[in-house]
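Sequence in, structure out. Go.
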Amino acid sequence: MADILNPENEGDLQSQIILPPDYPSAAPPIYQINAAWLRGPERAKLANSLEDLYVEHVGESILYLWVERIREFLVEKSQSSETVNQPEKVNMTSEEVDDDDDDEDIPDFRTLKLNTENAHLFMDPTNGEELPPIKHGNPITDRRSTFQPHLAPVVTPRQVKMVLEKLYENKKIASATHNIYAYRIYCEDKHSFLQDCEDDGETAAGGRLLHLLQILDVRNVMVVVSRWYGGILLGPDRFKHINNCARNILVEEGYTASSDAAAKNKRPKSKKTK
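Output:
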């Protein structure tokens, strides 16, 4: 675990890097970067630059190169803020009050790591993949907070990034307080899933969303839920709205049956009376 000082004094950047047994010959380091101010396009930009370094130095030790790249990123961010002579404002309206009693049956995905066996798939340098079609679901509004789901079929991590970049081109989506997402990709050759999630500042929301995708056993799909905070704390209801949004769009796009249909199929058949 490494703590790197953020020059904008908005908090520290915390990075956790795990070296798998076959590093560096056959697998890259497994990393996770945590910083409250690092979100959306900036997080994607940093992740892409780290992956580019791996591709350029396949088979070589890149740990120190990664650390230096993170430091350079922070310096560049600080200099760009000084140019406009105004520190960047971070939208931190996440509800920090979490109900621990609500989490008893929910796996903790907040420290989710990439599977070592499949980590190299995130470093695919190939281009030319088509942008998957993106569907937008119906919004849910509660106490001035609005939640809206977005869905796209994905079969590679590159497509996941393409979908995120496309969504962030929309000014309304880019301005959302949180853009929580999760995805599951089935690797047929390995008979395993490549999956990940992102809270985007809404603590534990990404893990809950991924848990929903696992329970529904959906595959090759990505779900993003945008939340625009309305100024009133919703408590655990916010997680209910996030998952309901996701479930609704998965049903609408045919990835899973509705709860009513599933319950109907599970009902035992009545015996005929003679």
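Check: DSSP finds seven helices and nine strands in the chain. Residues 14-78 form one domain.
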